[in-house]
From TrEMBL:
SUPFAM superfamilies: Porins. Residues 157-493 form the Bacterial surface antigen (D15) domain. It comes from Oligella ureolytica. It holds the Pfam family POTRA. GO terms for biological process: Gram-negative-bacterium-type cell outer membrane assembly; protein insertion into membrane. Gene3D superfamilies: membrane protein fhac, membrane protein fhac: a member of the omp85/tpsb transporter family. This is Omp85. PANTHER family: OUTER MEMBRANE PROTEIN ASSEMBLY FACTOR BAMA, SORTING AND ASSEMBLY MACHINERY SAMM50 PROTEIN FAMILY MEMBER. GO terms for cellular component: Bam protein complex. Coiled coil: none annotated. It comes from the Bacteria.
Amino acid sequence: MSQSTIAEVRITGNSTIQQDALEHNLVLNGIVAGNNLNPQRLEKLRQHIINHYRYFRRYEAQVETRLTPRDGGQVDVELFIDESLAFRGLPEGYNDDPYADDVYTEKHRRAYETSSIDDDDEDLPDATISLGLGYGSKGVNYQASVIKRRLFDSDASLRLSALRDRYETNVDLSFSKPNFLQPSLRLDANIFYDSYDNYRSRTAAPYKRKTYGAQFLLNKPLDRDSSIFGGLRYTHNKLSKIHPDYSRALYLKSIGEERWDFSADDIDLILGWKFNNFNHRYFPTKGVGLKLEGNISLPGSDNRYYKVKLDAQGYYPLSATENWVIAPKASFGYAKGMDSREVPFYQNFTAGGQETLRGFAYGSVGPRALYSSTPQTRVSTLPAAYQQLTNRVVGGNALASASVELVIPNFYLKEKYRSQFRTSLFVDAATVWDTQKDKLHSLVSRNGRSGDIRVSAGIAVQWQFPMGVLSASYALPVKKYPGDRLEQFQLSLRGSF
């Protein structure tokens, strides 16, 4: 049987994959005008594109190869890709590779964008080793992870990950099993160790914490865009090197501790809901993302409190080409002690940094510490013992932040580079306060004022390159208060190789 000759090759649809990357792989697979049609190579490429969306962008796309016969044994080849919402993938609860975000780029992504597809390669590797280097509000950070998929020839995955930055060292061993007990129900379990020491911070009231524990979560999708999750978490915390502060003294007294060094064991119930219909995993131009998460400590825990946080973000295009986009964002958090116990100070909210309030230093916004004017070996809650005002932040039990961002066209770049960058103008605002005004020391009465809102405005640029994302922002403070620590230029880098 004679083979058909390719007359014309076209790429259609709305794919955000760079045109030259698609053309490059068509050429490398011999799918060009004048060549004989190889259906196996064409199908291999189609499956590779599907897996690119599924495992690296975390959503589904419709990918079709359409053949139109011509006279004389010729055929037209059309590569059609549709990323529209009608073909969005299943929510996180369905995802059989929950650790895809650990590896920003893998061999198969690099192969897709820069080299040919090897027939001997698996579309999804059984094992992945990733090393990462980043920079952000906590200085330089180092990351590493090892992922084993198809564990014991099943659909389960195992991950060992580690992270280290200026203040923190974290090690996590996690296990994920989709279709647990029933289809679409996913089990995520992990054991963890964390060491935190912020004595080098120039904004936070210092303390040292060592934590270990285990967590078990079940994820259940509700539809293509939303899912619920819930589970239990056991945590052991050992705290030391706490600089005597009035608000922390109130907390320690409430749980019956007499010394500044102490340990706490807690079991928390975790519940949450997520919704996400962004049209793109990276640099979305339309859609809404919502996350509501809360935890409450169960009887038998040393601490008794609950904590709730809502995060919301939206993208709304202002033009048909979607290069002008308005992007509002808001977060609200609240925590409250129960059974006459205060919220643990290491669970307090703060603001500042690229995630909440650009132009202000990380964690620099929130109620401030009132130190003891004399050394203490045992915890005292006498107000007269605390007279030393500071600019060190201890945080509060309530948070409200909001941001409005205007994404603008990358007119300063050549056309082929514009999809890799996002430029925006923004206004950020945030406040953190303590709602228990009756327990505030008279010298720090401003700690209970929700109206002490900080505001900044500026410009931000993000660059998505083959090994990660680089984000930079420059902000001017519109509203600040005495003692605020500013960082007008902020830079963060997230990547792996």
